[in-house]
Amino acid sequence: MRAAYSVLCVDILLAWRLGSISLVLAFLFIALTLVPFGVGPELALLKRLAPGLLWVVIILALLLSLDRLFQSDAEDGGFDQLMLSSQPLELLVLAKLVAHFIAIILPLSLVLPIAGFLVNIDIAALFPLVVSVLVAGPALCALGAIGSALAVSVRRAGLLTALIVMPLYVPVLVFGANSAQMALLGGGIALDAILVLAAMSLAAMLLAPLAISAALRGLAS
Amino acid sequence: MTDKSAYTYVQLDVHQLGVRRGGVMVISNLSFTVKAQAALMVSGPNGVGKTSLLRALSGLLECETGVAKLGQENLATNMLHYVGHGEGLKGQLTITENLNFMFDLLGEPDEERPNIDGLLSKIGLLQQRNQMASDLSAGQKRRAAMARLFMVPRQVWLLDEPFTALDLGGRVWLSEAVRAHCQAGGIVVAASHEPLDFATQYLTLEAGV
Lengths: 221, 209
Hints:
Chain A is an all-alpha fold. In chain A, about 85% of the residues lie in helices and about 0% in strands. Chain A has one domain (about 1-220). Chain A is elongated and about 55 Å long. By secondary structure, chain B is an alpha/beta fold.
């Protein structure tokens, strides 16, 4: 268990020192700033678009953080060490996913209230939005990591990762944006959509480590 | 590192090993024995499968055929140390942090954790203890990667091009470490193009064998 805990801590520390989160947040804010220029400063329109827009921009911002997820381990021989560990590779991969959630998704969802004001989000939709991102976060990490692991042997894999991951993100986006949009119609928090997201997250966190480990083992041989 | 408990003297038997890499059998039907307390040097032209052999023995590569036995037991990852081309150091961690992480991954009980400063002086990097790994020279990284050999005693050392990037002092230091390891009953398999002065046994791989 200590090996997995150590991977978790080291990955969070590395993400912090490499400034991965600042890149993601900078992209989020810049993209949202551009929106009013594109669609016009009509507040009512922005308010209606805000939850969906935020969700799309969050997903695009996350893609930026994915290509480094396994790349550095592949380059410096870190995978050999993970595979030679006495712990199962799946457990260590799960630790990396949790680290990515803590290092990227958590701070991202914390700044959403501020980011939301750039697109005039309804206060009523804010809380459901943050909850939906937090609940869907593990699924976003896990699905993204699958794409990242599959593309890891390719140099400059960012674009390829995005192509693999984006279709996988569609179901999460549908339910995530929907749950936040419902709040605008006065429904409060859309519990059924949140539950579906939770189910996706649980399933993805359970299955993705198996898929990722298989991809990484294939890479080694 | 502190308790150099002598190992039981056994030999390493590799029997009819076959390894496939990228759809091609790079090694087929390879059998050899490394005697107890011996250091085997594996040589041969580029692409003949030296690295594949070491990776197969370490368990990183799956063997198509064959088996490696240490004494009566099948060779398992917790009996060996593998130091390959990639150092596996995290550039944005200090050397001390890197070594602690290395130890955690090895998965030994926490009580066995060696004194990291003692380890650093053994590998000659005590001065650099708080430097980021990315700031080290290639030879220093190599020394840091070798630190695992002294962290946890394991009987079999698999070294891929151990002298690469090491300076003269580093080579003498490594040779002495290997000799001491063999003395205690350890076994070393090293792939190299350069002559290794610690080798006591030799194996030359030839293309198409």
